[in-house]
Amino acid sequence: MIKKMSKWLVWTGAGCALVLLPNVQFVFAQDTSVRDLVGAYNTSGQQLFKRFAASRGNIVFSPYSIGTVMAMALSGARGETAAEMAGVLKQRLPREQMDAANASLLMVLKSYDKSAVTPTCLESMRWTGLRCESAPTATGTCPSSARLVGDHCEANPISREPSAQLRMANALVQSKARRMVAEDYRTLLAAKYAAEAFEAAGVNEVNDWVKRKTEGKIDKIIDQLPDVVLLNAIYFKARWQLTFNKDLTGPKPFNLSSSRKVMVPTMANTDQFSVVVRPGYRAIQLPYEVSELSMIIVLPNELNGVERIGNKIDAKELSQLLQALRAVPSKLVQLELPRFKVSYDPGDLTSVFQHAGMRRAFDRNKADFSGITGHPASELPLWIEVIRHRAVIEVMEDGTEAAAVTALGIKAASIQLQPPKPEPFRVDHPFLFYIMDDATGAVLFQGRVTDPQ
């Protein structure tokens, strides 16, 4: 299993490139499945970024979210459809190992949320959910390091478990009109992906689920409901290990290009950070309160270099960057970082995956998702109709909040399943009958009919 997990990263392009991707450097040697799974997510995620980066403007997306939904779809694919999907998604694991690795990864990521652990307060004080409080003494004094606020004493906790809200949710939705998902597939998604199942759902139910799971950051993902929808939502909120002082935030110039600049609210912090120099760029690591999580800022050397460096950083370069950051000692850095908020909707991703070579999954006549229905593809054809992704991120003085949702819509052909041809049994001549007690085998009634009139 996993010994330690570090770095959850995200990309955005707005002058400086930002990365947030899973890293499983500390996986035990005897268990490489999670490492292989995350490697596939990262590799396909970097390929997606290059496609997104072909357009101008800010970008934020979740390779984990997209990778998870595509893995759930891959679990239901068979034959050449599965082989083609696995190739494009860079998934080298057999289906069963991929599903098990997703379950392990999900467990690790969810372990970072320690909000249910009650912080430790000074003796005689109690935790209220926001702070430590107690009544003042008869003389109106408070315990050491506590302060009198109104009619009560307040203090910060002595110790508090580092925590980050990293919430992942998956779901399988069947429309009100069509129900064709096999029980085995439902059970698999529930066991390995902790996926909720919704029967006879509609557009409003799906979008309400999205809004709840992203704390309202994303309010909708679909306008029309396909026959089957696979969903992933991820919500991230974490406090910096080294927070920025809001009083030091002020307007600073930001170069949009070599010829254009604007004034933007810029945070400042002088402290110990890990910094590395790589060909064409520098990178700094900003840890969150949960030390396994961090943000890495990649700053191109050239003002107009973000596109070139974005194309340069593939999964291999990213891995080398993270290794370099782990290897260098931290040093005193005077950091200035713009506050920013980015939302991104790349639209339907089907053409992106088709361009990468995944074609059968979208072809009504060639797709094989018989693992979803439990019926041969010839009896109940399914194909991917739409893949939607939306993401938002906000970076502030005290931390980061981000959310993403991926929806994969599956279309079913308007074909009615033909019931098995019944074996004929026509009672058209004299017969016997028996009324039995099945529990004991006793014959309660018995007879013969030669003329039923």
In helices, the fraction of residues equals 10-25%
Summarize the helix and strand pattern as letters: EEHHHHEEEEEHEHEEEEEHHEEHHEEEE
What is the strand content?
A: 25-35%
Rg value: 29 Å
Name given to the CATH homologous superfamily: Antithrombin, subunit I, domain 2
- The structural class is alpha+beta
CATH-derived topology? Antithrombin, Chain I, domain 2
What is the overall shape?
A: globular
Q: Which regions are unreliable across 5 or more consecutive residues at pLDDT < 50?
A: 1-30, 443-447
Give the termini separation.
74 Å
Biggest sheet record = 7 strands, antiparallel
Total separate domains = 1
Number of strands: 19
Query: Please, how many helices?
Result: 10
The CATH class is Alpha Beta
Second-tier CATH architecture:
2-Layer Sandwich
